[in-house]
Amino acid sequence: MKIIRxxxxxxxxxxxxxxxxxxxEQNSIYMxxxxxxxxxxxxxLAGNAGYYLWRRKYHQDSREAAVAREVKFNDxxxxxxxxxxxxxxCPYDCGICENHKSATCICLIDITNRCNLKCxxxxxxxxxxxxxxxxxxxxxxxxxxxxxxxxxxxxxxxQISGGEPTxxxxxxxxxxMAKELGFTHRxxxxxxxxxxxxxxxxxxxxxxxxxxxxxxxxxTDPEVYIKTRGVDLLEKKMxxxxxxxxxxxxxxxxxxxxxxxxxxxxxAPILDFAVKNEDVVDAVVYQPVSLCGRITRxxxxxxxxxxxxxxxxxxxEYNNGSxxxxxxxxxxxxxxxKLVCWFEDVEPFELTxxxxxxxxxxxxxxxxPKNPNNNKLHAIEEYIDPxxxxxxxNHLWKFIKDNNLETPRDFFxxxxxxxxxxxxxGSFIDRLSHRIFKKGLEVGYFVSALPFLNPKGLKDVEVVSxxxxxxxxxxxTPGEESAANFLRDRGxxxxxxxxxxxxxxxxxRVSRCLVHYGIYDRELKKVFRIPFCTMNxxxxxxxEKKNAQYQDQKVPIEVPHSIS
Length: 564
Hints:
19 helices, 13-stranded mixed β-sheet, TIM Barrel, 17 strands
């Protein structure tokens, strides 16, 4: 046994803090921990130790200030570890606390816990909880304003989720409000069933939805949907694709929840489906299922499906193992996206997630205009070697930050500022000089890509140039117009978000979370932001009960006639 690192986790039974060890054994990576009351627990983090350890070299700490929030509402125990991990201890102090190491990238808001399905694997279903939780429009505005007021980097992405957000009749107004408040990326997370009504789909698009994050567990096996969603949805999913194609919507993100023994055989077919439907689909985001409830150690090890399993399947089973692209951990592009956003004068965003949180890569689709079934997926490595090119970005962004070069220097305005006119002229020259300086760096940086071009890239320099300029803006904003054209015409984002549960919870990952739930606490009349994994594992039940509108009552749910 080789110890990789020590961390803090929680007991899956009592949710108390306990120490955990992450170690390598027989080419796999495990987490083990022991609760004084409930005994030992073990989970597998990766079935491929080499891939897991390779990801660790891409670890990135944020150079931007995280926003600390006053925490008053939590009921977790006092930290056993001397306050190192928070007031009461991570992962309880979510508000967020001063120990959080990354700024928010995505503002996630559950606008309802109602749904028109009864998915066996869902954690937020009013049909099960027996009460409704729906923020008012006023509360939603407060949540959105809270996130947009973040300094120094406000999140540009607002993910509208649930439950099923389309059961709210005011969803168009909610999307419009997100657009009004400056969210450039307005994503609706949905099962898509309401989009069987093409007029409703058009209404939501017209309101400002510029990315659709859709549940998509299978493309060939209807039995999968029966297991994961309680009903066969395969035919309806295909109809939704046709509706999107008819209205010209090209920003669909397929989101398969992958469970071992349930639909892991669908990983490669789903990717193939995305390639053949590139005119509608611009991304696939696989989500290995979070394990909920009380299960044995043996069951955890048998059921767990993680990022290394995905990596193996994609590289070995898709198209007979023809795709050999590297699946990079999310923080790989952290400095690159900030640099290119700076070049392009667009709002930057944070990508300093923990390297275990997921992976991503960008692919080029070679389109056959006569027959989409002949479309071919190419790894970006066929065009350019990203490693050296990204290393230059890391050095350049560090230079800019260390020398405070992000904004114009107040130089000429001081020299000429003896009069009002002189100060204005000086200020203009300062801004112009900064723009010229920035343009020079931009040209120099992109020219530096030339030594890293591979044979296919040398043959198609236009594709490479287009790719490099748009890459930063499409990591988490595939719906943004300035970036979407690349994905629509030539590219596919292939990624994984591996969310935590009580069995594999790691506070090092929690402290670097980029996806934060926005919560309005009606008792304290205050907005809190909570990292994704702690919300669903620890905080959800308590928060929802505090904000519940109808407790212990049967909740009326509208079910479209087409699925009843």
